[in-house]
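Hello,

Our lab assistant flagged a job as stuck in the queue for most of the afternoon. It eventually completed. Since we weren't sure the result was trustworthy after the delay, we are filing this so someone can double-check. Below is the sequence as submitted and the structure that was eventually returned. Let us know if re-running is recommended.
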Amino acid sequence: MKRRQFISVLGGAAAAWPLALRAQQPVLPVIGYLNIGSPGAGVTTGLRIGLGEQGFVEGRNVLIESRFAPTGQYDRLLALASELVGLRVAVLFATGSAGVARAAKAATATIPIVFANGGDPVKVGLVASMNRPGGNATGVSYYTSVLIPKRLELLRELAPQAQTIGFLVNPTNPVSEGDVEDMEDAARSVGQQILVLRAKNETEIDTAFAAISQHRADALLVDVDAYFNTRRDQLAALAARYRVPASYNNRRYVEAGGLMSYGPNLDDANRQAGVYVGRILKGEKPADLPVMQPTKFQLVINLKTAKALGLRVPDKLLALADEVIE
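-- returned structure --
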């Protein structure tokens, strides 16, 4: 072979090497991450911890592709879920609220879905039953929505003088009206008068608190909602300004200056969901994985806020509290 021909053949082989190497590299599975709000408001930390327990590390042997609907715009979720389905993700991780999981469920009947939210997954149509989900979805139910009666009970203990208690919901959340019904049932059972308030943006939250003052509501229970989670600083500040004792569903509100929260440990619940994502990536089926539930609920009280509101926290509540912020 002539020298020029040899160099040409060698050059052609060398050029083909990167292509051959790329062809031999395994294609990493992709997790589609669906939420509402902003990327910084997600629960990817819990997801990554759970994945790590199953041997998956982002960038090494798994990838995460995220889609976030703008804050409060639940109607955008289906299109975003469909985008992730179009990318042929291996698993859809839908978190933040039951509305997010319902959008994922509407987008695909075949790709496995792992959800993490506070709704009743049977009631909102995500699974056939808790023990045997039966379809392409499973996950973790925080059950914060069905804790409404307990949250109402605790708020009444902290503010026993409250004749009317406000209940703030986001009307764009598909499960909000069901939560209103649950609140009405809980209030009726104890003879409590309630005032339902609806807000889907900053301005309407301001208006809702003005209505609390106008209608002389003496306390407030804030519904479980992904948008409200992003507005916890505003909600806590308004409750302080209007001097309204308020109850929330997780401790992050109390850290922001809110009075009280009662609910599960969200970080651990999302870690559990991440474990399920890892198990599905290893070949298990959502239909065979029972929906998990938290085993421990946390009562958190902010004594500084209570003092500013002129409230004395009963010894009974202090004894029950898992954490007291002073």
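-- support follow-up --
The delay was a queue issue, not a problem with the job. The result is valid. The first helix runs from residue 3 to 24. The radius of gyration is 24 Å.
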